[in-house]
Amino acid sequence: CPAKIGATLSLTGSYATFGPPISNAAALAVEHMNAAGWKVGDCSKLEYIVRDDQTQPSVGVDAARRLVDVDAVPAIVGPITSGVTGPILSSVTVEKGVLMVPSASSSPTFSEMAREGKLNGLFYRVQPSDALQAVAIAKLAWDAGNRSIAIVHLNNDWGNNLSKQFAATFKALGGTVVSQVAYNAEQSSYRAEVNKALEAKPQSAFIVSTVIDGSKILRDWISLGGTQKFLFPLGMNDAKLIEQIGEQYLKDSWFVTPGAPQPNSRAVFYQAYEKRYNLEAG
Known about the structure:
Layout: E1 3-9, H1 19-36, E2 46-52, H2 57-70, E3 75-77, H3 82-96, E4 99-101, H4 109-115, H5 130-143, E5 148-154, H6 157-172, E6 176-183, H7 191-198, E7 204-208, H8 211-223, E8 229-232, H9 239-245, E9 252-255, H10 264-277
Parallel strand pairs: 1-2, 1-3, 3-4, 5-6, 5-7, 7-8, 8-9
Helix pairs in contact: 2-3, 5-6, 8-9
């Protein structure tokens, strides 16, 4: 004792927009459990230990190893991105018999790994697979009148799988994917990738990116005269993106966020979050 729960989260790096508030929510939940006097096994107190994965797979693996080998946690929450979750599963948690519950890792790869028996029942996630999100976005794109679309996506497990499923669904609906361009993260400019995507003069664009990289891609896209009809996945649904680009350039854009039940306990936790951290929970 105390019992421990670990977290690997993007407190810095390209997903730093999401990491700190998610970590705060986890810390608050632990505070509530301790205040309520809940027992974890034979322990009357639960300790929350968070490590920064910097949104980098190698750093995430090192952080997870430290949590498991040094801090002796039996379970890890997080990470955010599938690109970090995958290596941790393969290199640390499954081998060590440690449970992992990521907050937002949505790659369909993990569902396949589970079906193949590679996760030993040690992986659960709270966000649906991108196999579902991609279908929903493709249907939304079609219903909004888009018939030809370019895809610019992050070259990792999440970006590759989401764009692949989206393209398959959009084509099945009768649409045309005129270009599908992968990019590597954290470049100073994406002008080359944007130029390649614009060659076929798409009617709209599906941008599968982080907020930081997405802002750069959109600035290059708009400056080169590309269409201003955009679709964005959950990972880009952030007010900071709109602030950085400008509402006037995103008037014909769609952001997609999976729905969730709205029990009374959710509202109570939001209120507690606002009070604890003196800011809006959303």
